[in-house]
Amino acid sequence: MKKLFTLLLSSLLLGGFAASAQVFWTENFESGSMSGMYVTAYSGPNGRWTMTTTGTEGDQPNLWYVSCAEAGHITGACGTTCLTGLGLGATLHIGSSDLSMGDLGATYDAGGLCGFGLYCVNTDRRAESPRINCTGKYGINMKFYYIEDGQLTTDDATVWYSPDNGVSWSLLGNPAKTPPICPGGQGLWQSYTVALPSSADNNPNVKIGFLWVNDDDGIGTDPSFAVDSVSLSASPTIPVPSFTVSSNPTCQDSCVVFTNTTVGTTDSITWSLPGFTLAHPHGNIDTVCFPVPGSYVMTLTAYRLGTSYTTTTTVTVNPTPHPVVTRVGAVLTVSGTYTTYQWYNGISPIAGATTNSYTFPAPGTYTVLVDSAGCKGISTPFTFDPLLAGSLTSLSNNYWVTAQAGGRVTINANDPLSETSELTIYDATGRKMKNDTWMAGEFAKHIDASDFAPGMYIFRLSSGNASVTLRWMKQ
Predict the structure, then answer these.
(1) Distance CA 182, CA 46 (A)
(2) Domain match, 89 and 212 both
(3) DSSP string, 405-473
(4) Domains in the chain: how many in total?
(5) Do 55 and 163 fall within a single domain?
(6) Residue 70 belongs to domain with CATH number
(7) Helix, strand, or coil (residue 384)
(8) Which of 76, 105, 169, 462 is deepest in the core (most CB within 10 A)?
């Protein structure tokens, strides 16, 4: 039955306020309990309600219940239970402790026995809502239906607000008492509307609460306090279009994420970027990749009731460097000027190799990573004689020796020989082991040393003008 009345109530609300407000959060306290459910046991569509003791209490304070022991109604109706009258279903209300009267609806124990050594009903406790996400909502009002009497401000209900998920609280309002003029002393239901502070605007961490205090003086009149059909509504506002850019400036071949951060009420949005077909032109997030450097203007248009509101941002795409490396002898040089340089041998950075040139000491694969205006690019790998993948055993000037499995030995040169030279190999005793010719124009000379015994060997390379000697240890 509550759902039918809730739909009717929502229709009335929206019919009266659709032009000026939009309901975005409701709490109807549909607990399913006829009596006795504590507020801390209630978890509705919005989440679990909690309770905080905010002052000194007696051993038998009044309790917050969520049940049909007090039925909800709209303005002008007399209070009932769900069993005795047609209403909107369960409510959040103040009843007595289990030792006193328990949950009889909005009926409470005003106390007065504490001074005689019996139980004390001093009460100071707040029922608190789950976190309310008000993101994108502005000009927020809270409305609810209620009955309340008690005793002036000493047995009294007040409305509270938290902007930080319950860390801090402030008084929001004090609804007027509703006179118990109905038969049987029941209260006459009324409505109450109060504006939330501006700190609730666009705030994902809002909470509302209802505080009940009782001074245990034995004076007070039912009904205590009951509340139902709580709603939060936001005022439509003119859109103020805005968006964030994940990286600006950015680099060529990079992708940029655009995120809509428009505030206010919008019917729809559209992204526009000349020269690009966007994947999600009407979504809140779109991603664009830029293969060509330049300046690009992204436009976001928000629409509200046939009027458009536009904002633009220029994205600067800097070129990604593509460094070119040239080699002269054992010296590698980057053409062009960049902000920073870092040379690598394979995947390992070379310590101290941070200029535009690098002299490599051994065969390997060399690259350089450069930076220009925050954009990084790496050169094409330069591999020096990759077929000679052996362990470096000796280096002299521009020549070195490498050895491979199977007894193959290679003598390497940074540059091809300018003239034909004679290569002679000696063992450690000076005995000549092999003699060969290294032809002009070649980078390397391969020798079959499979019949060499383990030990030290001397390689002598000579021509008519010069000679060089290298040592090699066969394992």
Answers:
(1) 33
(2) yes
(3) TTTEEEEEESS--SS-EEEEEEETTS-EEEEEEE-TT-SEEEEE-TTPPSEEEEEEEE-SS-EEEEEEE
(4) 4
(5) yes
(6) 2.60.120.200
(7) strand
(8) 105
* Distance, CA of 355 to CA of 334 (rounded, Å): 9
What is the rounded distance in angstroms from the CA atom of residue 384 to the CA atom of residue 296? 42
- Whether the pTM exceeds 0.90: the reply is no
Find the domain containing 64 and state its range: 2-234
282/396 same-domain check: no
- pLDDT bin (cut points 50, 70, 90) of residue 20 is low
Q: What are phi and psi of 45, to 5 degrees?
A: -60, -25
For the stretch 311-357, pLDDT in tens is 999 999 999 998 988 887 778 999 889 999 999 998 899 999 999 99
Q: Which of 322, 316, 315 is nearest to 371 (CA)?
A: 322
H or E element: which one contains 17?
helix 2-17
Q: Which two tokens stand for residue 85?
A: 């009258």
Residue after which a domain boundary falls, among 301, 317, 333: 317
Average pLDDT over residues 370-398: 63
The residue out of 184, 201, 234 marking a domain boundary is: 234
Given the structure tokens 């000037």, which residue do they identify? 397
Query: Do 269 and 148 share a structural domain?
Result: no
In Å, what is the CA distance from 246 to each residue of 243, 273, 287, 330, 377?
Answer: 10, 16, 10, 43, 20
Nearest to 198 by CA among 133, 242, 137, 131: 137
Closest CA to 196 of 242, 267, 144, 239: 144
Residues 16 and 153 in one domain: yes
pLDDT of residue 398: 64
Residues 47 and 112 in one domain: yes
Cα 200 to Cα 25, 164, 207, 228, 360, distances in angstroms: 13, 9, 9, 22, 65
User: Rounded distance, CA 438 to CA 419, Å?
Assistant: 9
DSSP 170: E
pLDDT at residue 235, rounded to an integer? 84
Task: List the one residue out of 164, 100, 86 whose CA is nearest residue 128.
Answer: 164
Residues 6 or more apart whose Cβ sits within 8 Å of residue 307: none
Q: Same domain for 372 and 418?
A: no
For the beta carbon of residue 70, count every other beta carbon within 10 angstroms: 35
pLDDT digits (tens, 9 = 90+) for 427-461: 888 899 999 998 888 878 888 888 888 888 888 88
* Element of type H or E holding 6: helix 2-17
- List, in sequence order, every residue forming a beta bridge with 23; answer none if it has no partner: 233
Mean pLDDT of the chain, nearest integer? 87
The predicted pLDDT at position 84 comes to 83
- In this structure, the answer to whether residues 49 and 124 fall within a common structural domain is yes
Cβ proximity of 354 and 341 under 8 Å: yes
